[in-house]
UniProtKB/TrEMBL annotation:
<protein>
    <recommendedName>
        <fullName>Reverse transcriptase domain-containing protein</fullName>
    </recommendedName>
</protein>
<dbReference type="Pfam" id="PF00078">
    <property type="entry name" value="RVT_1"/>
</dbReference>
<dbReference type="InterPro" id="IPR043502">
    <property type="entry name" value="DNA/RNA_pol_sf"/>
</dbReference>
<feature type="domain" description="Reverse transcriptase">
    <location>
        <begin position="1"/>
        <end position="263"/>
    </location>
</feature>
<dbReference type="GO" id="GO:0071897">
    <property type="term" value="P:DNA biosynthetic process"/>
</dbReference>
<dbReference type="InterPro" id="IPR000477">
    <property type="entry name" value="RT_dom"/>
</dbReference>
Length: 409
């Protein structure tokens, strides 16, 4: 038995920055759940996470312990580099699903748990969490009447990401195992057909027939799960002589955005680095109004300004052009747009030796990229390890080049 309030939720609306308040789309719904519900869900999720590495395929890198989104990004980058080197034809399709988390049917979620072989008692407990759900909306400080719903992963529910990757797992394994679908080749006889980070699903196809089979498989998945493909926001990056008409209404692009990193057909796009440093002038402008001391400015550089590019630097080494741009921004901020009276290498000395302790941006860039390589090399289920070894062993000459393919692209 559970109290009626156990499955109740409340939606609070937050206005998006700079959006007109009279437009419904300008408001961001934030769902709040009861503490007792979240406590039970947290206990179940902590138990469930222990099993995820055993039941979730290596194509999915979200919410699984000891996996990382950098596996998804590294695989994508290395496959593109390998395809460019071998002059392959094919298509990389980045799917966008309509409200992916909100559309999953609760009945489908329970069936997936049963198919995975979870005991009946566990499934019945989950069923208690996902039946008789209700929600109301807070408008102008007052709550509306409650309404019920039978689909969607509950926002703020600890089980949400875990259940979603389990629900999309049948699609991933179906695509990967279908012999009628030809993926991009890896080193040896392996090939890669699909990668996913939660609902961010990327598909690699070699020919038009493979793409048709992929669409057919997705349509079957959508029919049973409630998912829907947003063709208007899905993107395709074409390689070689792949026919554009084969992908239908999906837009073709020259650069595709994967989890915030922009990829052309080879390497990492310059747009990635532009995005990484474009916020620096805003931060320095705000900091100038605070009348900071020199050491306080140095602390702002270490904790804020240099941190903006850290995410991109886990996937690629910062190019010399961006490195020079960032160093100029740092110097301008530290010395109030005047020439630096002290050489940069002296500023990078520890404070105990008379320096400011500034980071060596170029060295940190390489260390962050190598950190990703080391993590993925040690991962037991990283799907792209063959390409990782290919780029880092047979092509070591690229490790210290200005623009490198492979692990330090």
């Amino acid at each position: 038995m559970k109290p009626n309030s156990f499955g109740a939720g409340r939606i609070v609306l937050l206005l998006k920055d700079g959006a007109p308040p009279n437009e419904p789309s300008s408001w961001r719904p934030i769902k709040l759940l009861n503490v007792d519900y979240k406590t039970v869900a947290t206990v179940l999720n902590n138990k469930l996470k222990l099993l995820l590495p055993c039941i979730i395929s290596p194509y999915q890198s979200c919410a699984v312990p000891a996996r990382s989104m950098f596996a998804h990004l590294t695989d994508t980058r290395d496959v593109f580099e390998y395809g460019a080197e071998k002059k392959l034809s094919g298509a990389f399709v980045s799917l966008d699903q309509v409200k992916a988390f909100d559309r999953v049917k609760h009945r489908y979620t329970l069936e997936v748990l049963r198919e995975f072989g979870f005991p009946g008692d566990f499934v019945r407990l989950v069923e208690l969490l996902y039946t008789n759900l209700s929600c109301n909306v807070v408008v102008n400080g007052s709550a509306t009447a409650g309404f019920s719903y039978t689909r969607g992963m509950r926002q703020d529910c600890p089980l949400g990401p875990t259940f979603f990757i389990m629900c999309i797992e049948p699609l991933l394994t179906r695509l990967a195992s279908d012999e009628r679908i030809r993926g991009f080749p890896l080193t040896g006889e392996d090939e890669i057909k699909v990668l996913a980070y939660a609902d961010d699903v990327c598909h690699f196809v070699r020919d038009a027939g493979s793409f048709r089979e992929f669409r057919s498989a997705f349509n079957r998945y959508a029919e049973v799960s409630g998912a829907a493909l947003n063709e208007g926001k899905s993107k395709a990056l074409l390689f070689g002589a792949f026919p554009k008409e084969a992908i239908g209404n999906i837009q073709t692009v020259s650069t595709v955005n994967v989890l915030g990193i922009f990829f052309p057909c080879e390497g990492v796009a310059e747009t990635t680095w532009q995005k990484a440093v474009e916020r620096v002038p805003l931060v320095t402008a705000r900091s100038r109004r605070l009348d900071l001391t020199l050491r306080e400015k140095a602390l702002a550089v270490k904790t804020g300004i240099c941190a903006f590019a850290n995410y991109a630097r886990r996937v690629a080494v910062m190019p010399a052009k961006t490195l020079s741009q960032l160093n100029k921004m740092i110097s301008s901020f530290l010395w109030d747009d005047k020439p630096a009276p002290v050489k940069r290498n002296l500023q990078q000395l520890p404070e105990g030796e008379g320096g400011l302790g500034l980071p060596h941006v170029a060295t940190i860039s390489r260390l962050l990229a190598l950190k990703t390589v080391r993590f993925l090399h040690q991962a037991s289920d990283f799907y792209g390890k063959g390409l990782l070894l290919y780029w880092s062993s047979t092509n070591t000459k690229y490790l210290y080049a200005d623009r490198q393919p492979g692990p330090l692209a």
